[in-house]
Design goal:
The protein has one domain (about 5-195): 3-Layer(aba) Sandwich (Rossmann fold). It is built from eight helices and six strands; from the N terminus they run H-H-E-H-E-H-E-H-H-H-E-E-E-H. It has helices at about 5-15, 20-30, 40-55, 70-85, 95-105, 110, 115-130, 180-190; strands at about 35-40, 60-65, 90, 135, 155, 170. Strands 3-2-1-4-6-5 form a six-stranded mixed sheet. Helix 4 (about 70-85) links the parallel strand 2 and strand 3 (about 90). The longest helix is centred in the middle third of the chain and has 16 residues, at about 115-130. The model has no long low-confidence stretch (mean pLDDT about 90).
Length: about 240
């Protein structure tokens, strides 16, 4: 199915207040075999749970940057076994990583920002993951990042990886949910989750760029904590940054 900008805007309005399960069902209905869930964290596994219960032809992929926590790898394997689904893992190009590390070292992001490292380890692999797809499903929420995500719609034309020649629809079913709603769902449906969450990690990325947060801190405070709030996007959702 091909959706134009007008139709996408109408769907975003019509589905804005619907349950995330209905938005997941919409994605699977309109793009069977050509839609994937981008999977890495608590929100994403909720979407996987919903998709499995809705049923349909969808894919699940994850990005392995080579610098994830051991607990994250264990989490990925737990989800694969729990839902009995394949998870496609996309890695950065070895030559690109080797060249970057040779030039900049292993921790340059503490000095000049995370963008360059994320481009090599996340954005380039994501482009490969998205290339065969017509749509993808993400776990973005409006309250995740007050600096960049407050206007995320439930359905949109992907502003970063889509183009006129190759349109890509982006579904954000959890856009209007809070963190509490996500965790209530996880508890109610016995959904697997990353063991790091029990140790104060709320938003989890690469090991060098993620820390536990303290009570009262915003959940994204543990990501790239040395940078401004408006810069806390790795490039996967760069269209959020105006």
């Amino acid at each position: 199915m091909k959706l134009d900008q007008q139709e996408i805007a109408r769907l975003a309005e019509d589905y804005d207040q619907k349950h995330p399960r209905e938005i997941v069902a919409l994605a699977l209905r309109d793009f069977p075999g050509n839609v994937a869930i981008s999977f890495s964290g608590a929100e994403d596994v909720v979407l996987v749970d919903m998709a499995c219960k809705v049923g349909g032809d969808f894919r699940v992929f994850s990005l392995d940057t080579g610098r994830l926590h051991p607990e994250t790898y264990q989490f990925l394997e737990a989800v694969r076994k729990h839902y009995e689904i394949p998870i496609e893992v996309f890695f950065p190009e070895p030559e690109a990583v080797q060249s970057f590390v040779k030039e900049k070292g292993l921790f340059s992001f503490y000095e000049d920002g995370h963008k360059e490292c994320c481009n090599v380890r996340k954005v380039a692999p994501l482009k490969r993951a998205l290339h065969p797809l017509r749509a993808w499903v993400t776990g973005q929420r409006k309250d995740q990042s007050p600096g960049t995500r407050t206007a995320v719609p439930v359905v949109q034309a992907d502003p970063t990886f889509g183009s006129d020649d190759r349109p890509l629809v982006k579904f954000n079913p959890l856009s209007n949910w809070t963190s509490k709603q996500v965790w209530d769902y996880i508890a109610e449906h016995k959904v697997p989750f990353n063991a790091l969450h029990a140790r104060g990690f709320v938003s989890i990325g690469c090991e060098p760029c993620t820390r536990a947060t303290t009570p009262g801190e915003h959940e994204r405070a543990g990501r790239w904590w040395w940078e401004e709030a408006t810069l806390k996007e790795c490039g996967l959702h760069a269209g959020n940054v105006k």
